[in-house]
Specification:
disordered C terminus, alpha+beta
Length: 329
């Protein structure tokens, strides 16, 4: 088997010459693109290499990326290495700006540019009558924008289970228990996935019917790594427990006595009423004292102290509490 066949024509042998069953066909083979080999270490036979060099310099070493550049080799790391991590949206905008500036720069000395920019050279080539351009269809563009994985559908209903999410469409009923190629956006796992048969023919778009898993593959992978690390840690913890006695474990896990909490008082208080209220002692005037006080008050008003009190049955007429009778005076 030739190197060309192993790398591009045979999907079973494109992973470093390892044959993997049901491996997804490569992008070049799927799009029917024929590659051409070039001479190693020969920049003239690979014009794109110069573009990669320029972009690497202009993107990575740009002042806006200071602190994030890692160097082209481990021993060539800058002094401010890892002092800043570029947010993804900032990096995407920076790369787009550098590529636009790279293509618009004039003074290119290539055989076709002749002092013009790459944008001007490309625009002229597109206007030439002999130029025939093959444009990719929407179905073909989805191939290079999506990740791919071969999955086996469920035998009973044709459902596709991936990252704890479930995908299904009526067309999958004909492929129950079969291996199919699923293409998906790793950052949007809750969106519909594209399903292809083993020959690469499109079957359907299968929506996510059960969103039980993660929406991003990176988060799912990170969760799985954390889960494995936790399981490993628990095993090591259990192994250490076996090396200690029950008394040592009890002393290790003995908790300090809890502090006595302070009573919680309400913000607004009110006076206690009802049976719990403390009855205040009051000075109640007797009936006799009340009548005697009335008599004294009237005598003071009239200036006459000879007012005869109203007779009562329990004492002689003309006598009152707190006063002497006229005969006694």
């Amino acid at each position: 088997m030739s190197l060309h066949a192993m790398l591009f024509d045979e999907a079973l042998s494109r992973n470093r010459f390892k044959k993997i069953e049901n491996e997804v066909a490569g992008l070049l083979k799927t799009l029917d693109i024929e590659p051409h080999f070039t001479k190693p270490y020969s920049g003239q036979s690979k014009p794109i290499e110069r573009a990669w060099k320029d972009l690497a310099e202009e993107i990575s070493k740009h002042p806006a990326m200071s602190g994030a550049y890692t160097g082209n080799k481990p021993e060539n790391k800058p002094e401010n290495y890892r002092t800043w991590a570029v947010p993804l949206d900032v990096l995407e905008r920076h790369v787009a700006e550098r590529i636009a500036e790279h293509n618009a720069r004039t003074g290119r000395r290539s055989e076709t540019a002749k002092g013009r920019s790459f944008d001007e050279t490309f625009a002229e080539s597109m206007r030439h009558p002999a130029t025939i351009v093959r444009r990719a269809t929407e179905a073909q563009r989805s191939l290079w924008m999506l990740a791919a994985k071969v999955l086996k559908t469920r035998p009973r209903n044709g459902e596709i289970h991936f990252q704890k999410n479930v995908y299904w469409a009526p067309e999958l009923n004909e492929w129950m228990g079969k291996h199919l190629t699923v293409r998906f956006d790793p950052d949007k796992l809750h969106q519909p996935v594209k399903v292809y048969d083993p020959e690469g023919r499109f079957i359907c778009d299968a929506p996510c019917t059960e969103k039980a898993g993660y929406n991003e593959q990176a988060k799912a992978a990170r969760h799985e790594r954390n889960r494995r690390a936790l399981v490993k840690l628990n095993k090591a913890k259990a192994k250490l427990h076996k090396q200690m006695s029950a008394a040592q474990l009890g002393e290790l896990y003995a908790a300090d006595p809890p502090e006595k909490p302070e009573p919680i008082r309400p913000t607004i208080t009110r006076i206690v009423t009802g049976n719990l209220a403390i009855e205040q002692e009051t000075d109640v005037m007797s009936q006799d004292e009340y009548e005697a006080g009335i008599a004294r008050g009237l005598s003071l008003i009239s200036g006459d102290s000879s007012i005869i009190p109203f007779p009562r049955g329990d004492r002689p007429a003309g006598s009152a509490s707190g006063r002497k009778s006229r005969a006694e005076t």
